[in-house]
Structures are given as C-alpha cells and as structure tokens.
Amino acid sequence: RMLEEPAFNSVVCWGPLGDCFIVKGIDEFTKTILPLTFNHSNFASFVRQLNKYDFHKVKNTEQNGQPAEHNWIFRHQDFHAGRRDALKNIKRKVVPPRQGNVFALSTTTDPLPVVTPSLSQPSPSPSLPTQQTLSPFGRSPSLGPLPSPPMSPQQDQQQQQYLASQNQSLTSEVQRLSQEGEGLGRRLRDLERNYESVVLELLRVQTGMERQDGLMQGLIAYFLKMEVKDPLSNETGNENGA
Q1: Residue 225: helix, strand or coil by DSSP?
Q2: What is the pTM (predicted TM-score) of this model?
Q3: Counting Cβ atoms within 10 Å, is residue 22 exposed (0-12), middle (13-18) or buried (19+)?
Q4: Beta-bridge mates of residue 21
C-alpha cells in the first residue's frame, strides 16, 4: 500500500524496472511511513521482517550520476509492480526443526509358539499349597507378602510432618523457578533491545562506508581528469619555449 501512495514517492517507491522498491532515507521513512503502515518506528525490525520473507538488500548504484548512499533497495523474485497475483508466492521462510534423539522400534515380531494340547496325557490339575510349601512364617509365598501392621498415632503424625515438609520444599522450589523464569524473561527483553541497537549501529556504519566509497570514487575520477590535463599543458609549454 505504501508503494501505491503518491504522497510517499519521495520517501519510498518502486525501482525503475518495477522489480524492487527503494527506501530513500532511513530517518524520514522511520518517522513518517512505518508508524502509518506497520504500527511501529523501528527500521531494524522492518529489515528483519523482510529477511524472514526472503527479501534481499541490493547493493546501491548511482542514480542520476550521483551516488545513492542513503537509499536502501530490497528485492524479491515474486514482488513486482502491478503483479498482485504473484504476492501469494511470498511466504515466510520455514526454519527446519532440530533433530533430536529418535529411538526406532522394530516393527517385526517373532511369532508366538503354538502349543497343541495332548489328548493322551491329561494336564495336571493345580494343587493347593501343602505344609511343605509354607514359608517359615506360616504363609505360602504364592499368596504375596504379609500385610503391614497399622501405624501408631505417633508414626502417623511423623509421616504427616514429613509430607508437610516435602510439600513446603516443593512449593519453595516452584517459587524459585518462577522467579528465575521472570529474570530470564527480563534478560531476553534486554538482549532484544541491545540487538536492535547493534543492528541500527551497523546500518549507520554501512551508510557511512557507502558515503566514503562514493567520495573515494569522486576523488579518483578527479585525479584521472587532472592526469589527462597535465600532459596537454606540458606540450603547450614546450611549444612556447621553442
């Protein structure tokens, strides 16, 4: 929408071929365009969003014979002027998930053995426990362990106290983990703000380097012109001397 608004053409517009868009000056774009179209005024966040949708920054070229060091050019293979049908191809890049440890289970199982009962020999009937199968405590092992005796009131009170202390310890641990989580959240927010500041500083440094590159190109062109003029002036001086 911002590229279709004629009032914004002095700040942001399509490229000459309609295959890219140009931001003419970060400050004016951040102050006037971003708050109206994206509800924020953070140019670094705007650039990150473009990168997530596979937009690429194009190296600045000269415009009307002057270095365009203040211009930011962004391009996407499906983003063209008058091609709304291609906008559906612009999608957010998918980050592949990390591969963890996967324990594969075997899908093959061994067949169970088939037991065919014999008709000639009858199966033995289960026998009841006898005196010989009794344990030294007078109870068959097949009937399980002996039931535990009931606890005394003192033992019951001690168990309740132990459970209460464990509950208190778990509550304290949960509170500690909650406080640590809040602290980590604050640190993450601080890191995000610092990251945005670093990105802005890098953008300013890059703009300054591009400006210096333009100045160096101008100086080189100037010295080349001076070298072309000097031989002509020397030949004129030699003719006058003759």
Answers
A1: helix
A2: 0.38
A3: buried
A4: 14, 74
Amino acid present at 195: Y
Q: How would residue 99 be classed by pLDDT, with cut points 50, 70 and 90? A: low
- Do 107 and 114 meet the contact criterion of CB atoms below 8 Å apart? no
Contact call for residues 70 and 28 (beta carbons, < 8 A): no
| DSSP at 40 | -
Residues 6+ away with beta carbon under 8 Å from 26: 43, 70, 72, 203, 207
Neighbours of 210 (CB within 10 A): 17
More confident residue, 1 or 148: 1
Minimal CA–CA distance to 218: which of 57, 69, 16? 69
The residues, ordered by sequence, that sit 6+ positions from 19 with a Cβ below 8 Å of its Cβ are 75, 79, 80, 81
- pLDDT single digits (tens) 110-129: 444 444 444 444 555 555 44
9-24 pLDDT per residue, tens: 888 888 888 889 899 8
Report strand pairing: 71-75 vs 21-24.
Answer: antiparallel
- Which residues have a Cβ under 8 Å from the Cβ of 57 and sit 6 or more positions away? 47, 72, 73, 74
Q: Specify the higher pLDDT residue, 14 or 3.
A: 14
Closest CA to 15 of 80, 87, 89: 80
